[in-house]
Design goal:
Strands 7-6-5-10-1-11-20-2-21 form a nine-stranded mixed β-sheet, sandwiched between helices. The chain is α/β, with parallel strands linked by helices. Strand 13 and strand 14 form a beta hairpin. About 30% of the residues lie in helices and about 15% in strands. The protein is built from 22 helices and 21 strands. The chain binds zinc ion.
């Protein structure tokens, strides 16, 4: 039997109780019940997501890496070198949910980090849920110090997976074992954990206001003892008055001569050059600074180790699932760009963190008993300044100036309307003021189309398409239209989807400026690594195109569970053949998983 957590689970009773009395007595009668269905199956599935890890970055910085992290994955794993997302809005919650569900945002419903809910008239931060408050006092998002723009928009501290419209692989694993599989997800970002934990797992994330890993009442009525113990140790205080320093001699780095780069953002005094000082533990932005550096990943790893040990993950024949999402690469990419001394050093530190994790898993569970899958929720762009240096046209788009543009003025005149036409704009969706349009007796579809047409004439806009047009099934089969459709959910998507031309993006989020902003449909934003390692896997590098949504159906096939309820990815045969070598090799007919 599984060793049960001593915590009290509030939402789902399965893993805590799992009808233990019934199960235990049943096991005495039928001892074979709990033996693994298939001897080849791993004891632990370890799904790692590195936030904003563009597909080329591990190879680009591998020269100065050690042997136990990325190099281990490269030399022992199956590395898919041409994996791209197919949806238009390459944002964090969208990618994480696609990884978890094997589905497109059109189906899983997490179309954007923030959307406007027309029923309540409110903005919704993807996983917010006012019914399930966070467990710790003082752990609500502190809007005065929260620099994560989308998270700061949440109107409640509550968090749950309720807005995810389909099942995750972890849900299916849980269903297939009647709740016996232990499922845990950990991340600095709440949306990096809640998505992968699914509806029946346990999610923990880092509260910048409390400096602790927290959860919500969806998952527990009170913390498991091991979480309380970990938080009591105040590990985040260990970085007080320290700084993020270079791991190696500066001259050994590709970007060693380019530390002081004007494209970089000096946010809240964290600075543009090494060393980046964290300051005292009680200073306003201290915990933010930890997450903007490799320290955030180190804390995440430490907490994940405590989860492995305390919850005894991978210790018996019921396969467990641990998801870890490392967030530092994303913050570093946003503030400094992926081609910066900071990004380069962060990659070397992440490599050490991964090596540490793999060594720990090997010692406690055995890498042979563990199936590792690593990917990212999205890629990321260079800074415009970096692209320009190489002769590539690039820049920021300024939506606040659209209102003054001649095309929008024409439109307002045509419909006889003022400022109130646009209700809100949260990239990539623009929401129109339906009430005003109705009150003026205008036809919504016509206004949508007219606004979309005018937006197409603005510099930097590659596609502006209305929800009515997306619903019409009359679009030509182009790359951008496919990406738009795969992101379109009629309940949540806005009136008009706006995509920018390559190398252009928005960089101003409510006054908070960033150096590089992902979220588009172009190669640099959609490109991520997909790597399987450990377990039965043998080294292979594969260049055929695949999609990250193929991961969940692959895991489902290894575990012989149902595929998540709207998974449209295809199982990856190169992985499966190591688990089921005698299984007939299916012809892979996939070209596009959509249409
Ligand atoms: Zn992200």
């Amino acid at each position: 039997m599984k060793n049960h957590s001593n915590a009290t689970s509030s939402k789902n009773k399965h893993w805590k109780h799992a009808g233990c009395r019934w199960f235990c007595s049943t096991l005495l009668l039928f001892p074979l019940f709990n033996t693994p269905a298939l001897a080849n199956q791993p004891r632990l599935i370890l799904q790692i997501t590195v936030d904003q890890l563009r597909g080329d970055l591990p190879d680009k910085y591998m020269k100065n890496m050690g042997t136990g992290g990325f190099r281990y994955l490269k030399e022992s794993g199956i590395w898919y070198a041409n994996a791209h997302y197919g949806h238009a809005n390459t944002e964090t919650v969208v990618g994480h949910t696609s990884l978890a569900t094997g589905a497109d945002p059109a189906q899983h419903g997490m179309v954007s980090n923030v959307w406007f809910d027309r029923q309540s008239g409110k903005l919704v931060y993807n996983i917010e849920d006012s019914r399930y408050h966070v467990l710790s006092a003082n752990a609500d998002v502190d809007k005065r110090t929260e620099i994560d723009a989308s998270q700061a928009l949440a109107s409640s501290d509550g968090r749950s997976p309720a807005n995810i419209m389909v099942t995750t692989f972890s849900d299916e694993l849980s269903l297939s074992t009647n709740g016996q599989a232990k499922i845990i997800a950990v991340s600095v970002k709440d949306r990096g954990a809640v998505t992968l934990a699914g509806h029946n797992g346990k999610a923990f994330w880092f509260s910048k206001s409390a400096g602790e890993f927290i959860t919500s009442t969806y998952y527990y009525e009170r913390y498991p003892d091991w979480v309380t113990d970990w938080n009591k140790k105040k590990k985040s205080d260990a970085y007080a008055n320290q700084s993020w320093q270079l791991l190696h001699k500066q001259s050994s780095y590709m970007y060693g001569d380019e530390d002081d780069n004007s494209a970089e953002i000096d946010v809240a005094g964290f600075g543009r050059v090494f060393p980046h000082a964290y300051g005292p533990a009680n200073s306003k932005y201290y915990t933010n600074f930890l997450t903007f550096s490799p320290a955030g990943d180190e804390l995440t790893l430490d907490f994940a180790k405590a989860a492995i040990e305390s919850e005894k993950l991978g210790q018996d024949d019921v396969t467990d699932f641990l998801a870890i999402s490392f967030s530092s690469t994303d913050y570093v990419g946003h503030l400094f760009g992926p081609s910066s001394l900071e990004a380069e050093d962060n990659m070397l530190r992440l490599d050490l963190t991964l090596a540490d994790l793999f060594a720990y898993v090997d010692k406690h569970i055995g890498l042979d008993n563990t199936l590792i899958v690593l990917s990212a929720d999205h890629g990321g762009p260079e800074t415009p300044q970096h692209w320009q240096k190489f002769g590539i046209d690039s820049g920021y788009v300024l939506p606040e100036e659209w209102d003054k543009s001649p095309s929008i003025s024409r439109l307002k005149k045509r419909f006889g309307i003022g400022q109130a036409l646009i209700q809100s704009f949260f990239p990539p969706y623009l929401y129109l003021n339906h009430k005003m349009i109705k009150d003026k007796g205008l036809i919504l579809e016509e206004v949508q189309q007219a606004v979309a047409d005018e937006l197409m004439s603005i510099k930097g806009v590659a596609l502006a398409v209305s929800s009515t047009t997306l619903n019409s099934n009359k679009l030509p089969d182009t790359y951008l239209n496919r990406a738009a459709l795969r992101n379109f959910n009629s309940k949540r998507s806005g009136d008009i989807l706006i995509l920018f031309q390559p190398h252009y993006s928005i960089n101003d989020f409510h006054g908070e400026k960033l150096a590089a902003v992902h979220g588009g449909p172009w190669e640099y934003d959609t490109f991520v690594p997909v790597v399987f390692a450990g377990g039965k896997i043998k080294q292979q590098r594969i260049s055929r195109p695949i999609e990250p949504i193929d991961i969940a159906p692959t895991l489902a096939e290894i575990m012989k569970t149902n595929s998540p309820s709207r998974a449209s990815g295809r199982p990856l045969q190169e992985v499966l053949q190591h688990y089921y070598p005698h299984q007939g090799k299916e012809k892979d007919a996939k070209e596009f998983s959509y249409i």
